[in-house]
Amino acid sequence: MQNRKLVIQADEAEVVRGIFQRFVETGSTTLLVKELGARGVVGKYGRALDKGALYRLLDNRLYIGEIAYHGEVYAGEHEGIIDRQLWEQAHAVLASNNRQQSDGPGRVQTPAPLKGIIRCRHCGRAMKPTFTRKDGRMYRYYTCQAAEKGGSHAPCPLRTVAAGEIEAVVIRHVRAMLRAPEMVVKTWQASAGVHERDVVEALKKLDPVWEELFPVEQQRLVQLLIGAVEVSKGDVQIHLRAAGLDTLARELNGIGNQQEAAA
Predict the structure, then answer these.
(1) What is the Cα–Cα distance from 176 to 197, expressed in whole angstroms?
(2) For 45, which DSSP code?
(3) With contact defined as beta carbons under 8 Å apart, do 241 and 226 qualify?
(4) Which of 78, 88, 110, 209 falls between 20 and 30 A from 149, CA-CA?
């Protein structure tokens, strides 16, 4: 600080900008903390960054040239080091990650990680998340839309599947991909300049931290890696989303940033 004004340290500012950018790209505090630890990035007092420190950093309005005081926000006399667009992108990710929590007393959002990708093979129709409550417990399902619209007269032989059971099948498939990524790339053709080696490395980074991810982070990865889940009586077919492997490799390995820097 000089003349009671904050002074920007160029090297620290670059680290902070990189953290914001990587958070927007990965969408996960868990993965970012692991990455920063592996790179030896530390906080102001030389300590490794944990999730709490990362959240505080991402919420520090000093970085956009503002000062928060007693719940009010004021324009500071210092120059921001994060542009407004990057700040808003990071906070949009934070808001999305927190959306799984209660928005009010007694209200809890129902998770549906397969929403939009699960289909009934018999009817060729999407299956939508539904739930019922009985004896104070909530039971979740995915219901064939043909059966829902046709009621008891609909010819669909499947009608509903228990959400927990089908989600467990898909999660096991995803975890198997993470544990044996070399098998995945054998059926995947590299595209958009992403090498299969980068895909393997990206998948290997995920398995050790899967259990630490928030449900919303796990859901995003399922939606990214799985293109479709087709369910019929006694059978489930899971289709890989090749473009999702590209995206994941770019996000976790920072390939996009490296290519831009080299351009």
Answers:
(1) 18
(2) T
(3) yes
(4) 110
How far apart CA 76 and CA 78 sit, in angstroms, is 5
Task: Please tell me what DSSP assigns to residue 26.
Answer: H
Q: In this structure, are residues 187 and 245 in contact, taking their beta carbons and an 8 Å threshold?
A: no
**Cα separation, 238 vs 254, whole angstroms:** 28
Residue 236, pLDDT above cutoff 90: yes
Q: What domains are there in the chain, each with its CATH number?
A: 10-98 (3.90.1750.20), 118-262 (no CATH)
Percentage of the chain lying above the pLDDT 70 cut: 80
List, as one string, the DSSP characters of 64-105: GTEEEETTEEEE-SSPPSS-HHHHHHHHHHHHHHHTTS-SBT
The encoded tokens of residue 150 equal 């046709």
- Look-up: residue for tokens 């500071």? 76
Give per-residue pLDDT as tens, 91-129: 888 887 765 444 443 334 456 889 999 999 999 999 999
Report pLDDT for 121: 94
Q: Which two tokens stand for residue 57?
A: 């950093």
d(CA 223, CA 202): 16
Residue 246 is which amino acid?
Answer: D
Please report, as a single letter, which amino acid is at residue 127.
M
Q: What is the C-alpha separation between 75 and 60, in angstroms, rounded?
A: 13
Residue appearing with tokens 């960054």: 49
Q: Cα–Cα distance between 254 and 256 in angstroms, integer?
A: 6
Q: DSSP per residue over 139-165, as a string?
A: EEEEEEHHHHHHGGG---S--EEEHHH
